[in-house]
Amino acid sequence: MSLLIFGPSPFRHQWHVCLYTIDSGQRIREHGVRIAVYAFDGITMFHLAVPQMVFGEVSRQGLAEWTTALFSHRAGPVQTAEGYTLGEVQGPSTAERADVVVVPSWFDDEREPGEAFSKILRQAHARGATIVGLCLGAIPVADAGLLNGRSAVTHWQAFDSLAVRHPEVSLDQTVLYIDHGDVLTSAGTASGLDACLHVVRGRLGSAAANQVARSLVIAPHRESGQAQYIEHPLPPRAEGDPMARLLEWAMGRLAEPLSIDRLAAQAHMSRRTFVRAFRASTGTTPSAWIRSRRLDAARRLLETTNLSIDQVAADCGFGSAVTLRQNFAGTFSTSPTDYRRRFTA
């Protein structure tokens, strides 16, 4: 059974239709959803486009009457990072009437939102709106106190600064997004697509989310537990740095056995001195660093070649497909085969 409820639209000063469906379990699902997306001077068009495309497609496909509007700390034009001017962006009152408030990015990982914006988020949350922080948008959500004592995720480059700024938040670098029901955060930029599809799935079901994904030609469901697939480059070092030479040497020999003793000998150090110097230079152990670089190499081969899993394992120094699968699952929560299927170039 369905109910139609008419009321004034908070976004365009028009009448707004909300469709509610009562399923066999007598649960009510809201189909008319008001979504407010925060825009600020310097935001990139892609960050703004992600929630607009996904949520807008719900209405374009005729799945439900979802309305999306941009708002800022004040009504008026907003200048994007690409130089475009967005005219007539609405003010904070739009967020006050929204069912979902999305912060699609943030200025940078050092900028504090200020009490006025934090208050907007807290008040929206207090009256029952879902708060979504995509990518760096998790930062102002944390600043508003909405992640205290909770787990969260943000772009990997902002992890350290956010951890220092909010030690009360448990950051998880191994997932694409984390949903607490009332607050959702996502990792890197593209994972915002996954998070927004997750919102659609939670409100309208998998069939609707899959239809939106097909229309936008994106993966219909990447699990939230997938790691951020970020390749870690060699850290910048001064020319002639002996540790830099060692790391480059090791990168060219990932298929070979690379024991700590062999690395120490190549660096002309005792084992103990080498381990200490390696950790001071890279922030991790030799074994962990080698494992990460081998996983990076395996991902590249899975993305760009048709080599068998056994051959990929051998070429990257894992020795066997079983060992590669174990390491892949432990780090990325997926298998090499599934990774290749999702990320093949």
Please explain how this structure is put together.
A 6-stranded mixed sheet has the order 5-4-8-9-13-12, with helices on both faces. A 3-stranded antiparallel sheet has the order 1-2-3, with no helix packed on it. Strands 6-7 form a two-stranded antiparallel ribbon. The chain has 345 residues and is of the alpha/beta class. It contains 14 helices and 13 strands. Helix 1 runs parallel beside helix 6 (191-204), helix 1 (45-60) packs across helix 7 (206-216) and helix 11 (286-304) packs across helix 14 (336-343). It folds into 2 domains: 32-216, Rossmann fold (3-Layer(aba) Sandwich); 242-343, Arc Repressor Mutant, subunit A, CATH 1.10.10.60. It is 42% helix and 17% strand. The protein has helices spanning 45-60, 93-96, 115-126, 138-143, 159-165, 191-204, 206-216, 242-251, 260-266, 271-282, 286-304, 309-315, 321-332, 336-343, and strands spanning 2-8, 15-22, 28-30, 33-38, 66-71, 76-79, 85-89, 100-103, 130-133, 151-152, 170-171, 177-179, 183-186. It is globular and about 65 Å long.
